[in-house]
Design a protein that fits this description.
Blueprint: E1 15-28, E2 31-43, E3 48-56, H1 59-72, E4 75-76, E5 89-93, E6 96-102, E7 109-110, H2 113-122, E8 127-133, H3 137-149, H4 154-161, H5 165-169
Parallel strand pairs: 7-8
Antiparallel strand pairs: 1-2, 2-3, 3-4, 5-6, 6-8
Length: 170
C-alpha cells in the first residue's frame, strides 16, 4: 500500500474569505473592456495565513487565481497562549497603517473589515486593532500581514540576546 505524501500547501487545508471584488474597466478605441479583480485571504486557524490577488474576465476565475496566489503567500505566525499576539505592533502598507495590540482572555477580536478576517483566519482569539490612515481593503489587509509577520516571540528574543525566556519575561 502506497503512502500519500501531504502537500503543505494543499488547498483543502485552508479556509478562504474574499476581501475585495472589484469591477475594472479599461477604455480603449474599440470600447470598454470589463475585467474583475479579487483579493482573497486564506488561513488554517492554527497560525498560517496568506493574502493574494487575481484578475480575470470572469468573477469565479479571478477568485480562483487570487486563492492560488494567497496559498502561495502563506506565512506562519506565532500565536501566544493559543489566543493573542506577543506585543504591540504597527503594520504599514502604502498609506494604510494597522495597530495591533494583545488583549486579555475573553476580549475577542476587536477589529473591522479585512483586519478582522485576516486575524480570524490566522486563528487569533483576543486582539485589539485600530486602522489608521487609508482604509483601502487591499492595503489594510497587507498592513495587517506586515504587522503579524514582524512579531517577535519571547523565545526568539531570548535566543538573540543569549538569555533564557524567564530572564526576558522577568
Amino acid at each position: 500500500m502506497e503512502k500519500k505524501i501531504m502537500n503543505p500547501r494543499n488547498k483543502d487545508d485552508y479556509k478562504d474569505e474574499v476581501l475585495s471584488l472589484r469591477r475594472v474597466t479599461k477604455v480603449t478605441k474599440g470600447g470598454r473592456n470589463l475585467h474583475f479583480s479579487a483579493t482573497v485571504a486564506v488561513g488554517d486557524g492554527k497560525g498560517k495565513v496568506g493574502i493574494g490577488s487575481g484578475k480575470s474576465n470572469e468573477v469565479v476565475e479571478a477568485i480562483k487565481k487570487a486563492r492560488m496566489q494567497a496559498v502561495k503567500n502563506v506565512k506562519k505566525i506565532e500565536i501566544v497562549d493559543g489566543r493573542t499576539i506577543s506585543h504591540d505592533m504597527i503594520g504599514i502598507q502604502g498609506a494604510a497603517k494597522v495597530l495591533l495590540k494583545p488583549a486579555k482572555a475573553g476580549t475577542g477580536i476587536i477589529a473591522g473589515g479585512p483586519v478582522r478576517v485576516v486575524l480570524e483566519l490566522a486563528g487569533f482569539k483576543d486582539v485589539v486593532s485600530k486602522s489608521l490612515g487609508s482604509n483601502t481593503k487591499i492595503n489594510t489587509s497587507k498592513a495587517t500581514m506586515n504587522a503579524l509577520t514582524a512579531q517577535k516571540s519571547a523565545k526568539h528574543i531570548a535566543k538573540l540576546r543569549g538569555k533564557s525566556v524567564e530572564e526576558i519575561l522577568g
